[in-house]
Amino acid sequence: MELMYPVVIAAVAALLFALVMAVRVLRCDRGEEDIRRISGIIGRAASAFLRRQYAVIAIFFVIVSAALLVMNLCFGKGNIYTPFAFISGGFFSALSGYIGMKIATASNGRTVVAARRSLNGGLRTAFSSGMVMGMSVVGLGLIDISVWYLLLKYAFCQSIEVIAANMLTFGIGASSVALFARVGGGIFTKAADVGADLCGKVEAGIPEDDIRNPAVIADNVGDNVGDVAGMGADLYESYVGSVLSCAALGVFTGYGERGFLLPFLIAAAGIFCSIIGSFFVRTHSLTEQRSLLRALRTGMYITSLLMAIAAFFLIRVMLGGCIFSRASAIQDLFTDMFSDPYVLRMWGVVLCGLVGGVLIGRVTEYFTSESYKPTRTLSASSETGSATVIIDGLALGMRSTFGSVVIVIAVMIGSFLLAGGRINDIQPGLYGVGLASVGMLSTLGITLATDAYGPVADNAGGIAVMSGQDEIVRQRTDALDSLGNTTAATGKGFAIGSAALTAITLVAAFRDTIADQFGDFSFNLDLLNMQTLIGIFVGAMLPMLFSSVTMRAVGRAASSIVREVRRQLHEIPGIMERKNDPDYDRCITICTSASQREMILPAVITAVSPIIVGALLGFNGIAGMLAGAAVSGFLLAVMMSNSGGAWDNAKKLIETGEHGGKGSKQHKAAVVGDTVGDPFKDTAGPSINILIKLLSTVSIVFAPVIYELYLRIGLF
After folding, report:
1. Which residues in 317-433 belong to E strands, given as ranges?
2. 32: domain range?
3. C-alpha span between 13 and 171 (Å, rounded)
4. Of the residues 332, 469, 471, 502, which has the maximum number of CB atoms within 10 A of its CB?
5. Whole-model pTM?
């Protein structure tokens, strides 16, 4: 039996479940006119932004596809499948983000109405919309790469070795869309958020989500285009990249077709486990954060447990000698099932990834949730002003890197050794690291649901305030919103951790691909090799440069919003008295134009860096660059995301009445900290995930061109 067929079935099941969840959400009560009107404005503006963004991306895709096609047809470099795979990867990545955004904007008002009935109703509505996002990402991702595998195998009659080498290049399309979506959406959302906070809350004393703030609608739109569409494209790319890089390593390591297919099957099993786990997400009437977190954790833990069981049987079948075609397959599956040490070790590899993903989420939660000491201490620092809030927030983010690094190192060491890796034979161990990254991302369906839930809850809280809902409704939506801040931070931590492991496997896959394509080339990755050493320094610098560019972009766009909000409050009479509405569309237009303009430079930096480094330093320099970017980028992303999440929840804690409550000096100090943290956690930090992976895929795709350039202008 063709073992890729169950993968296709799982992908279809994911898309069908997403459809069921979407219908379930859309059947919910939309509420009265005020709720429908505000929700409609947010939805239309978000759709308009994505259409403009995708138009820019389409131009980029036409240019790159043409270049890849010319490179193959005219110069005989690369392979003919890459341009078409590039387009398909980008298309499905964009589609998954669009689906997630559409259901998120449709469910925000419905969440408010559901919260009027009960807290559990609001939670289930918001979480169901998140499941649409999660299932769309994993379903479309597996459909894309599994169909390509079947085409290459049966339509083009390629060997598994050729398929593995070719499919490594397929992730570049998804990575490109993810970069544009993350950077562009991040600039939009944080420019609006920063502008709304500085002028609205700090200068004018307008409460959060107050309809009198000209930037309030743009802020809500940004939550959807950045934290939903952007995150969806980001994790789509991580998901596809981890499966493909691990599959390629399986072939290069000598496991053959079964080693290639195992990560696909683990990802497929994760879909069914996520579907089952989603039914266990429910809560009662308590609005305590711990109670809400427990509801989401229950679904996550059940999914992980089911995945652990499924992974054992998959590994026993694929690597333990059980063959489905034999009549005694089922009997063999359960006979002496724990007697094969190799199967148990490889099962332990997957468990390393599963447990590591859960632990990274818990560490992130500890440092960013208002329920724990770090964020509560950060909130207390507001008593002495905004300067101490910023200092303590930066220190918290730096301190939080310790736990994440320890977990990732433990996962790498455990998976490397369990898979049979040794100092003089690293290939089996590298395959183990790749399999651990797939294990970590196997539960992405429900993990992404808990992340996409956050922006929906945030929008619901804003709509509840703007539509003048009763106090009990606001309490429930505030509780859901506060939980959303934590789940969003946890989701970013999970994305960063998985990106680190995926980056390692992509570096290994790059080395193996170069060795396969250029048999006369031999890597020298000694730290005293100047090519490698310079590459490491350049790679370590790139996340810093990338973050600087994206944060400056947010600053420039936010400055435009600040000036516009000040102008409207000064020139349009009656806004503060609620006699006239602000010009919301103007702020949305400013954010849209700025994000389209500012996302170009980060994309150029990412695309040209591997080519320039390779042309000057060769493949050794590229390997060093990839390693330096992975380490530096991982640490910087963790620090920025956790600092930003902690600042946000520290502000939320004060708004509950602690340390002076809303409108106090302490609250204004916390708002300043939150404003600094916005581009940290929602623009620069999460975008680094894509940077470190896209550097690898660009290096692999353009390796033939880089080789020719190095022969002509190389420094060493």
Report:
1. none
2. 5-713
3. 23
4. 502
5. 0.86
